[in-house]
Amino acid sequence: MTFDNLKLIPPILNALKAEGYEKPTPIQEQSIPIILNKTDLLGCAQTGTGKTAAFAIPILQLLNAEDTQKGRKIIKVLILTPTRELAIQIGESFSAYGRNLRLRHTVIFGGVPQGSQVRELQRGIDILIATPGRLLDLMNQGYVDIRNLGIFVLDEADRMLDMGFIHDVKKVVAKIPEKRQTLFFSATMPNEIQKLANTILKDPKKVEVTPASTTAETVSQSVYFVDKKDKKNLLKHVLADRAITRALVFSRTKHGADKIVKDLNNNGITAEAIHGNKSQNARQRALTNFKDGRIRVLVATDIAARGIDVDNLSHVINYEIPEVPETYVHRIGRTGRAGASGIAISFCDDEERADFRGILKLTGQDIPVVTEHPYPASFSGLVKINPPKNKEVVGRPNAISGRSANNRNRKFYKR
Ligand code: AMP
User: Fold this and answer.
1) Is 338 close to ligand 1, i.e. is its CB under 6 Å away?
2) Which residues pair with 182 in a beta bridge?
3) pLDDT for 243-299, tens place per residue?
4) Is residue 50 in contact with ligand 1, taking CB distance under 6 Å?
5) At what angle do helices 353-363 and 325-332 cross, to 10 degrees?
6) Which residue owns the Cα nearest ligand 1 atom 21?
7) Mutate to test the pocket of ligand 1, among 1, 19, 22, 79 (most ligand atoms within 8 A of CB)
8) Whose CB among 59, 133, 378, 379 lies 3.0–4.6 Å from 350's, allowing a Cys bridge?
């Protein structure tokens, strides 16, 4: 399957070429024809699957076909997404894929003065990308006219629920025209989200990719068993490897994230934290510094990190093992995106072994243990699960930078 097979117009095909995209990802392959056909869509997919392009590309094509109107532009598409970071990333995707078209979009989100966002809205746009709170605020002030909306996209619906935005989402939905095409994306489908989907979609086609229990197969994983008190030294030891160019370190708590950053900075390793207690500006600044390579390490909590899209993220480091096994899959999905290879390293202390076992069970993969390191655990690191029966051996992934010697004899099984 190529993008040509998806009946895309040349200006979009050229933009995709310029982005270096060679072929559609599974979610794109499945969603683009449905959306071009003007059918509602229920997409079960997390970030990292190419989901943004899966809706942005056909939306651009549909709007371009309609773009005959002269004069001031009016909003025809609304994309609602939970965080400022995601909103900005979606905006960047529309800029990239729509670079050869005359369509205009803008991004609005809270935590910053509204002046420049209002001016953009007043200039006239085709596509509005927004977080719910700021959108409602600007709608109430009369700056957003969505009476002509034809397409509504709800992105990361489960996360909207997590972050307490579901009421705001419902308020927005109540104000948009009933006659519309709706695209609904969520990584997971808890009851409340399924109910919401039922109320806002009409005869949707369902598309599902990479369920949360599938560990990205391009990601090489390894685990270090280590005492809690030694984790910070182990982190510095691991980061001494210069092959780690850009690492996302996950911390369970905001306070913990700040402590890790402080310790790394004190030891000459550039790092910043991103979590809910940081202002929007501080979060965005840290993310930009990380993307631009000004800092080597970004320390994040799960909520803050979900959806972060960084090219060339070489390593994900789980400083703590997440309690919910699916979270592990989301975390390591930050690296190895869209076919690139990535490396995920986990630090597991005595108390976390049960959680780690949960991850092995969920993924059905055997994660190699790195035993040769300067901070061996005072407890036995054995966490055995039986490899699944009748599964083909698929190879022996490298642990860290392909240099770990003690994994050689371990086998890896396909789920
Ligand atoms: P998303 O799931 O939308 O967050 O996208 C994840 C990453 O994959 C982004 O960096 C995209 O630029 C990239 N991407 C999306 N579609 C493709 C494709 N067909 N080929 C290569 N990279 C892609």
Assistant:
1) yes
2) 152
3) 898 999 999 888 999 999 999 999 999 999 988 777 778 888 998 999 899 999 999
4) yes
5) 70
6) 21
7) 19
8) 379
Place of tokens 């700056």: 143
pLDDT of residue 279: 78
DSSP conformation letters of 179-193: SSEEEEEESS--HHH
As a whole number of Å, the CA-based R_g of the chain is 22
| 81 Cβ inside 6 Å of ligand 1 | no
CATH of domain 219-413: 3.40.50.300
Domain ranges across the chain:
3-208, 219-413
| pLDDT for res 263 | 97
pLDDT for 407 equals: 34
Q: What is the pTM of this model?
A: 0.63
* pLDDT over 60 (residue 330): yes
Of ligand 1's listed atoms, the one at least distance from the Cα of 93 is: 12
Mean pLDDT of the chain: 85
Question: Percentage helix, strand, coil, to 5, in the chain?
Answer: 40, 15, 45
Residues in Cβ contact with 394 at an 8 Å cutoff, skipping those fewer than 6 apart: 217, 412, 413, 414
Domain 3-208 has CATH 3.90.180.10: no
CB 393 within 8 A of CB 411: yes
Q: Is the CB of 52 under 6 A from ligand 1?
A: yes
